[in-house]
Amino acid sequence: MKAALLADVEKMVVRDVPDPSVPPSEVLIMVKAVGVCRIDLHLFRGDANYNLDSQGHPIPLAVQPHILGHEFSGEILELGSEVSDLKRSDRVLCDQGRNCVSQNRWPRCPYCRSGDSRLCDHYGEHGVTGLPGAMADYIAMPAANCLKLPDGMPMELGALVEPLGRVIHASDRVDRSHSRYSFEGERRISNVLIYGAGPSGLLFLQYLRCVKHLEGLILVADVRERICTLPRNSAGLRLTSNDRTYWRRWLN
Predict the structure, then answer these.
(1) pLDDT above 90 coverage of the chain, percent
(2) What are 217's strand-pairing partners?
(3) Which residues partner with 193 through β-bridges?
(4) Which helix (H) or strand (E) holds 248?
């Protein structure tokens, strides 16, 4: 298959690599859509490397090139012998993280037993920690990590579910925390500052307005002037101006 490999810092190359094998509890997916996350840019620029050896040291990209891509969706082509809840041609999105549950590991680590599987003692993340990502023709994933896409939902939107999930999780943690204010409690949050007008910031803006029905002030701040127009044009959502004049007036 073809794959886009990060062969060194700021060096992406397209190469032929072996097709993934399909263990009994996994499925082979033809990748249809892949998102580009800020983490991908950090890895590309050499600002981070989460592919570690047994001693905890980063493995240089020149030694072990990396296939990026952890926000993705696709179509199932092949099923492992133990998979019974999915079928060929199913359209799915995937949780890119491998934990005790997805790896059928017993006994579960303390984090997986408590539901905090993102902190799993044996955690690995496709496209981030050295496991092959989705910037390739195919990827093998645990069936437990796959979620069927609703009929009619474009693959591109399926790839956006992962960053949207982070937004929903953050909002949920706010509601479940022992703080004075929350989105649902007696003392409702009235003003929100979103720092960053990138894709996650825009998803947060739409989630707050359309799902949480936040009526108060939402400010979106970003040091990149060129993208500050994006929040103002987000599907007609009410958003206060981000210019310096307004900030000075609001702070005073």
Answers:
(1) 66
(2) 191
(3) 219
(4) helix 244-251
Question: Contact, 131 vs 125, CB < 8 A?
Answer: yes
pLDDT in tens, 143-179: 999 999 999 999 999 999 999 999 998 888 888 887 7
Residue 205 φ/ψ, nearest 5 degrees = -60, -50
Kindly tell me the burial class for residue 178, based on how many C-beta atoms sit within 10 Å of its own C-beta (0-12, 13-18, 19 or more): exposed
What 8-state DSSP symbol labels residue 89? Answer: T
* Pairwise CA distance, residues 187 & 174, whole Å: 13
What pLDDT shows up at residue 214? 87
CA atoms within 13 A on the CB side of 153: 18
d(C-alpha 227, C-alpha 200), whole Å = 13
Report the percent of the chain where pLDDT is more than 70. Answer: 91
Residues of the chain with pLDDT under 50: 235-242, 250-252
User: What pLDDT is recorded for position 235?
Assistant: 44
pTM: 0.86
pLDDT per residue as tens digits for the range 118-144: 899 999 999 999 999 999 999 999 999
Q: How far apart are CA 120 and CA 141, in angstroms?
A: 17
Burial 201-227 (b: 16+ CB within 10 A, else e): bbbbbbbbbeebebeeebbbebeeeee
167-170 contacts, C-beta under 8 A, 24 or more apart: 167/200, 167/203, 167/204, 167/207, 168/207, 170/204
Residue 12 parent element (H or E)? strand 11-16
Residue-wise DSSP of 50-72: --B-TTSPBPPTTTS-EE---SE
Closest CA to 2 of 130, 135, 133, 94: 135
